[in-house]
Amino acid sequence: MTLDVMETIEQHESVVRSYIRTFPKPFDKAQGVRVYDTDGYAYLDFFAGASVLNYGHNNPELKKPLLDYIQSDRIVHSLDMASVARAEFLEAFNRLILEPRGLHYRVQFPGPTGTNAVEAALKIVRKVTGRHKVLSFTNAFHGMTVGSLAVTGNAFKRRGAGFPLTYSESMPYCGYFGPEVSTLEYVDKLLDDKGSGIDQPAAMIVETVQGEGGLAACTMDWLKGIEEICRRHDILLILDDIQTGNGRTGPYFSFEEAGISPDVVTLSKSISGFGLPMALTLVKPEHDIWEPGEHNGTFRGHNLAFVTAKRALELYWSDDALQRETERKAERIHQALQALIDKYPAAGGEHRGRGMMRGIRFTADKELASTVSDVAFEHGMIIETSGPDDDVLKLLPPLIIDDADLEAGLAIIDRALGEALHKRGLA
Ligand SMILES: *Cc1c(COP(=O)(O)O)cnc(C)c1O
């Protein structure tokens, strides 16, 4: 008797499960930009594990050193004791990422998920400044543990905490009031004004593209302005590059073009390159004032993830070939999305995002993006929605996708949008 995968999960797993409802098939194999269900049916993956799989599924160049490592009985779990794999990752990250960019950070390994990296960031900025409050932005997403939820915008997710979320305050993100209104002036004025009712915060936490919050992208001028405000008011700046980092927007860090120097940077998702859990909190040496063990955890740095992470850096970040390819494909995606917006005016589409993290917000019908995702799934594509109303169709293909698969995916989206408009009575 073969196990009924969907039935077994339905019977035993908590109802909290989520993506399985959007993509209700039993998956088994995966390679490159495709995943396969148990019937062997292939799906083009334009979600890439929410940007965990920037280098594709089961990348053979990363799988090989991983298998070699396990095969030779090298150490897998070592808490945060010294291991060769740990040192080799740190050396490669410094040599290939930090030094060439003139960035000076100490690497902290929090627990292995993104929200662990954010919790560590929130703790250290409070410890350094002695202040409590952290400013976040409208539609921000920083994770599901309570510290991260306190700086997350989404009301539904915030409610899950079950008690009031405190020591945070939400400010309007870039473009929140439309392109005419500068939210920088608003934030700056509130911080200047002794009557504003805003206590001086420890830090601001910001994303350069709001991956979960609807793909709003800030301009590099806005980002520079945020850094200036932080410096002027003696506030630390946390840049959450968990989804946008590792080349998703083109450069390794999504903030490079702005030339800013955030005090804390969080990375996770694609840092291991292979889909193994791993997260980093980068802190400036002068802020690295932890007591040993003050932020501890069992899985802080996993040797298997170090092995694939180091190899991914060597493979993809020894030169700028991947960045240039990402920027080229990003332009093609931008152009294709604009063509869809023009082709289907009834959808009321607006372009969102940057780099290979783009999408369309449909203003005509809040259900349209989800319907496109459903229809695309029937046509063999995994593609997610984003935003508090799930009204943004979000394209996150692996960065290594080739032109033929990219075009195939864009064609499925075109067809799915046409069909979804019919289904929703808009065409
Ligand atoms: C995914 C994400 C997180 C949380 O990461 P988890 O691994 O789910 O805890 C935090 N910030 C951003 C910007 C993210 O995209």
From TrEMBL:
Its cofactor is pyridoxal 5'-phosphate. SUPFAM superfamilies: PLP-dependent transferases. The gene is ectB. Belongs to the class-III pyridoxal-phosphate-dependent aminotransferase family. This is Diaminobutyrate--2-oxoglutarate transaminase. Pfam families: Aminotran_3. It comes from Halorhodospira neutriphila. Its EC number is 2.6.1.76. InterPro entries: Aminotrans_3, Aminotrans_3_PPA_site, Dat, Ectoine_EctB, PyrdxlP-dep_Trfase, PyrdxlP-dep_Trfase_major, PyrdxlP-dep_Trfase_small. Pathway: Amine and polyamine biosynthesis; ectoine biosynthesis; L-ectoine from L-aspartate 4-semialdehyde: step 1/3. Coiled coil: none annotated. It comes from the Bacteria. Keywords: Aminotransferase, Pyridoxal phosphate, Transferase.
